[in-house]
Design brief:
Length: about 475
């Protein structure tokens, strides 16, 4: 590839490189920033989401034998100790059907009880990590969860596909009245049960909790009913093995480690379905310039059995960071100020209790109709606010101080516009209301740490090759 090389630091892109950077396909980049490993999702050359990897984040999804240390009846919750002496928060709403290993569950949760719990959220600031006693295992076709018997279907499945899948499971006597038929006879295939017995295991002695099923989008693409059932029985066998093993392991044992650190991110962005975050639903290319990350990605690809679009980027003249302007994008994502095209700007200030976002008119020159001017700024600001919520992973209570507009019609328009924008967010986001003073109340579910905290907690590593000193 021919390329003009100049001594000055500015980078000149060829037409081919410019087209590559502006491609409409999403790009998932695995690289490092200031010595910190990260994953960056770009769409139409805009940074949509970013993740920094740390040891703590690797606990999400891990399953432990925990011990109830104390009950907080006024909070309808309890505190559970897991490996390493870490104390976690468990809402009793997420423990209606726990799997106890030291006694039979009689409807009560008691101090000293030992039970299986799964980490669902990291510790954040002064808040402890959260766990659930409703365990969840998944593969590309299904999600099995304890604590329910209901069968759910991805909303992206057509009625035709949904009915076809329902028919397969009904004919196999696995589903009845939209519930998964319970019991070892339904959940274990004859082959899986014989395999367990050959290993000296006795699955018949397990007292199974209630188990429910979610049928994912990709199940509708399975080549045959046989493939579907193989994946179902394989996943149910994993769950039964997990429950069986917990009967004979010590308290605080990690029964299932967190999955490959890339798995959740890749599934979220690369596989169309209920967890897909691609706005355009176009194929995603995975690119990395780190050899160790490339090897790990290829290992995951092999384990999954699906062909992924993975590319190892090597260019001595133009780094991956320079090609996609990653330094500038990440600096902006970590800055408290966000400029709008109109000349206005946002100021984002996280506090202990909530996040405040202030909308300022800045350099925008008002016309004769001030209310119309403020309407335009607010609508533009709303689009950027929705983007920043996702990019920075802001959660909890969020108050946006929009420029006050006298027109009630304009306020309702802004409220409706924000609801439409946040509907694209993969994380549950609720637009509560907007006050007469222009304060919009938003709540967003807490999953993982905010981007700034991820960056601070991510361990910094030396970069001997110097290719990521951006």
């Amino acid at each position: 590839m021919s390329r003009k090389i100049e001594a000055k630091p500015s980078v000149t892109l060829t037409d081919e490189e410019a087209a590559l950077r502006k491609t409409e396909r999403g790009k998932l980049l695995f690289t490092s920033y200031q010595g910190r490993s990260c994953a960056l999702f770009l769409e139409k050359d805009r940074l949509v989401e970013a993740f920094f990897f740390s040891g703590d984040a690797d606990k999400i999804g891990a399953i432990y034998i925990g011990k109830i240390k104390s009950l907080a009846k006024n909070m309808d919750a309890c505190f559970v100790e897991i490996a390493g002496g870490e104390i976690c928060f468990l809402s009793l709403r997420n423990a209606t059907a726990p799997y106890l290993v030291n006694r039979r569950f009689d409807g009560r949760i008691l101090e000293g009880d030992e039970l299986l719990v799964q980490v669902v959220r990291d510790a954040q600031k002064t808040k402890k990590a959260s766990v659930t006693a409703h365990l969840s295992l998944s593969n590309e076709y299904f999600v099995l969860s304890t604590g329910t018997t209901k069968v759910g279907y991805s909303l992206k499945l057509s009625n035709e596909r949904k009915n076809a899948l329902k028919r397969v499971f009904t004919e196999m006597a696995l589903i009845q009245d939209d519930c998964l038929i319970q019991g070892r006879e339904s959940l274990l295939s004859i082959a899986e049960e014989e395999k367990m017995k050959a290993e000296g295991l006795r699955p018949e002695i397990i007292s199974l909790p209630s188990i429910g099923l979610i049928i994912r989008t990709r199940a509708g693409e399975a080549e045959s009913a046989r493939v579907l059932l193989q994946h179902f029985f394989s996943l149910s066998a994993q769950l039964i093995r997990l429950l069986y093993g917990a009967m004979y392991r010590n308290c605080f044992t990690c029964m299932r480690a967190a999955e490959n650190r890339f798995k959740g991110i890749i599934e979220q962005f690369c596989f169309e379905g209920e967890s897909s975050s691609c706005i355009s639903n176009l194929p995603v290319e995975i690119v990395t310039d780190r050899k160790e990350m490339y090897d790990e990605l290829k290992t995951y690809e092999s384990e999954r059995g699906d062909k992924l679009n993975i590319r190892f980027y090597q260019d001595t003249f133009l780094s991956l960071s320079s090609l996609y302007s990653l330094e500038k994008k990440l600096e902006n994502a970590l800055s408290s100020h966000v400029w709008l095209k109109s000349g206005g700007f946002l100021v984002i200030e996280p506090t202990e209790a909530l996040t405040v976002i202030d909308v300022n008119s800045g350099k925008y020159v008002a016309g004769r109709d001030a209310d119309e001017t403020f309407r335009k700024i607010n609508l533009e600001a709303a689009e950027e606010v929705a983007r920043q919520l996702r990019l920075r992973n802001l959660s909890g209570i969020i108050i946006v101080d929009f420029i006050n507009m006298r027109s009630g019609q304009y306020r309702q328009e802004l409220l409706h516009h924000m609801k439409e924008l946040t509907a694209k967010d993969r994380i549950s986001t609720r637009i509560i209301d907007i006050t007469p003073l222009g304060l919009m109340e938003i709540t967003r579910k807490k999953i993982n740490k905010p981007l700034r905290e991820q960056f601070k907690l991510c361990p910094r590593k030396e970069d001997p090759d110097g290719i990521n000193k951006i």
